[in-house]
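Customer escalation, tier 2.

The customer says the design service returned an amino acid string that "doesn't look like it belongs to this structure." They asked us to rerun it and document both sides in this ticket. The original structure tokens are below, unchanged.
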């Protein structure tokens, strides 16, 4: 194992938090729209395109969180053999992960996400192509989601379901929504939460 500097994770927590929240916003503003444009060449239905991207975001966070758990368990097991302080083992493990995030096998997570999407009944794709066309969006989401797990407290996305009551604190309505409709027809982008509090609104479509 490479050496690590104790306390790094806590010392850099605020700056990493700010960067990751901004990066999440950038992905929404740029990579999401690039993926939308790309998908429109294969799928004519805009609702299906937006559903595909939302599910890609949800699955990316799920895969990255699972990968982080497994990565952390391996690091803890290795570092515990020779740990003597002064920092707690948990802090030493977190410091190591923050310093060596490049060891995260992001491609394995991308493959998991694409596999999950291929078996998701809510979305479909023309048989001659594959969800791999938006793998660059998935990769960026996995990277950000993994890094967000190293924050204290970690960041996550809010759980959303079709037909839920529209929540002003959680989502913005898409421009093509029925602004008088009380229920979410489908989601465009997830909300970002910290300790169950929304810190970045998601986007949803409301229809009657």
């Amino acid at each position: 194992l490479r050496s690590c500097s104790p306390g790094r994770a806590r010392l850099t927590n605020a700056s990493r938090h700010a960067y990751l929240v901004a990066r999440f916003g950038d992905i929404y503003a740029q990579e999401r729209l690039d993926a939308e444009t790309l998908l429109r060449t294969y799928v004519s239905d805009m609702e299906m395109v937006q559903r595909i991207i939302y599910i890609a975001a949800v699955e990316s966070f799920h895969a990255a969180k699972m990968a982080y758990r497994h990565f952390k368990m391996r690091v803890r097991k290795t570092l515990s053999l020779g740990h003597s302080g002064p920092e707690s083992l948990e802090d030493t493990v977190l410091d190591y992960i923050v310093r060596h995030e490049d060891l995260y096998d992001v491609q394995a997570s991308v493959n998991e996400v694409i596999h999950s999407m291929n078996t998701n009944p809510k979305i479909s794709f023309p048989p001659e192509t594959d969800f791999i066309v938006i793998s660059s969006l998935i990769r960026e989401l996995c990277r950000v989601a993994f890094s967000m797990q190293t924050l204290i407290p970690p960041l996550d996305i809010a759980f959303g379901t079709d037909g839920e009551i529209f929540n002003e604190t959680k989502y913005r309505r898409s421009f093509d929504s029925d602004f008088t409709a009380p229920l979410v027809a489908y989601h465009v982008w997830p909300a970002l939460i910290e300790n169950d509090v929304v810190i970045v609104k998601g986007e949803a479509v409301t229809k009657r």
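Tier 2 assessment: The sequence is consistent with the input. The radius of gyration is 19 Å. The chain has one domain: 8-153. Sent an explanation to the customer and offered a walkthrough call.
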